[in-house]
Amino acid sequence: MLSIDILEAWLWDAACAIRGPVDAPKFKDYILPLVFLKRLSDVFEDEMARLAEAYGSLEVARAIVEGEREQGTIAQGRGSVRFYIPDPARWERIRAHGQAGLGQYLTDAVRAVARENPRLAGVIDLVDFNATAAGQRIVPDEYLARLVNVLSRHRLGLKDVEPDILGRAYEYLLRKFAEGQGQSAGEFYTPREVAVLMARLLEPEPGMAVYDPACGSGGLLIKCHLRLLETHGVEENGHRRLPPEAAPLRLFGQEINPTTFAMARMNAVIHDLEADIRIGDTMRQPAFKNAAGRLQTFDLVVANPMWNQSFPTELYENDPYERFALGVPPASTADWGWMQHMLASLNEQGRMAVVLDTGAVSRGSGTQGANRERDIRKAFVERDLIEAVVLLPENLFYNTTAPGIILVVNRRKRHPGEILLVNASKPFAKGRPKNYLAEEHIEAIAQLYHEWRAEEGLSAIITKEVAAQNDYNLSPSCYVASNDREEALPLEEAVVLLREAEEERAEADQALREVLAVLGFKDGEVRP
Question: Which end of the chain is less crowded, N or C, counting CB atoms within 10 A of the terminal residue's CB?
Fold first, then answer.
């Protein structure tokens, strides 16, 4: 069995094989589909060998699989093999093709796999390996041949690498790509340790349905699966498996970006997971609905939606799913729009852990008059939905240096009327290019939550009444002092506050114009 260290070094060598003609952010578009194809091809070869052993000959095995292919059994996910890999797309044929015309050959190969396996359409076949820009090939055949040669060093079959180890190596590549991708990295990758912490807070149980409405590359869903393996799995040959009596999680996700959607689907298959990942705009067209056309509900929700996303207020006001009954968020930031969508997606015993901008728990508090975010936050507190808020350290996320928060909602709180606030802004490890939470930091935060414990300098437990006295400001730094230094307002937060102020001014101006019109004034003059 290949180790994680060997796999990571090998996959990084693969990335280096096309360094030069391709910018680092584009590495993933060419490498991930080929890693995925190699896994599919090697597993198909192993499955054929298993069938040949069972039926006594490879010819009989081939006849069975070809028959299932013609009947559509494999395409429906009910065949003797997981996916049918046509002969030209099998790795040995790719490796033997040589350099000349390799880009077109690879493009034809992944498209052939998608045709044979509709479940992989729009997943494996998005990239054109023969693509050009300004009349020049983006990745010349010479570099593709190097990449194929590097990937040919190791098999990725069933007996060569465990799905969880291969999955970790795959996510290692995602992290490396995120480090080079700057602002857009947050669209597909949540830092591993943040995802692990969220899974530790939720502690999924066998058979639970877990949903991520902005799933990116699927990491949050997969970390919930891995946590279930840790808590309910049994050791077999050095790897953890769920025993027969422990049902796996049912995983559901939606992603708006086609490339990121493809990464999520590949990530699930690489981890050997069944996950229902759908493409689309969750806020405008939620994909998961029940027979009555209402939103499907789940046991757990995990998410890291885009922070401070802008949606027109009409989207909230005219919502056919009645998701925004607790208030219409400002057009400048959809944080509490996302929160209400996820709340509507929770069943009666449901819980969720959501990463948001720090301002989501404090904006509007202490100001005069109405404030949309503060009023929605108040509704969540008064309904006793918010269970905990965890303030994270700065410089964890790839698309911002600002800290985030994890907001935990529970429809059946263990401690009604109380909210745990954790200021985890200081316990972290310095890294390059980003800080990170070490295992001891994750363990300490999770223990505080599960033991429901106030600890000086780290956590506090407040009541709903105390939250109301502080105008529903739930920022942990307001209740748990970490040092004497005054916290600076992050630039992103200042921009959001400015947008909200401009939005409120525009609304006030419009209201004033309407009043003046009723009084007979127009553009500052009395109508004749």
Answer: C
Contact 13, 85 (CB under 8 A): no
What pLDDT, in 10s, does the model give residues 327-344? Answer: 999 988 999 999 999 999
Digit-coded pLDDT (tens) for 71-130: 999 999 899 999 999 999 999 999 999 999 999 999 999 999 999 999 999 999 999 999
CA dihedral (73, 76, 80, 81) positive or negative: positive
Beta partners for 293? Answer: none
Binned at pLDDT 50, 70 and 90, residue 25 comes out as low
Q: Sign (positive/negative) of CA torsion 62, 63, 67, 73?
A: negative
Alpha helices (runs of H) in 18-81, residue ranges in sequence order: 27-55, 58-71
DSSP character for 429?
B
* Protein fold of 4-161: Ferritin (1.20.1260)
> 394 falls in which pLDDT band (50, 70, 90)?
confident
Rounded Cα distance, 507 and 301, in Å: 34
In whole angstroms, give the CA distance from residue 337 to residue 360. Answer: 11
Domain boundaries, the chain: 4-161, 187-478, 491-526
Phi, psi angles (nearest 5°) of residue 256: -85, -30
CA distances from 393 to 322, 353, 495 (A): 35, 17, 20
CA–CA distances in Å: residue 483 to residues 263, 330, 425, 456, 487: 41, 33, 11, 12, 10
Cβ atoms of 490 and 405 closer than 8 Å: no
pLDDT at 469 over 90: yes
- Which two structure tokens, joined as six digits, stand for 146? 């190097």
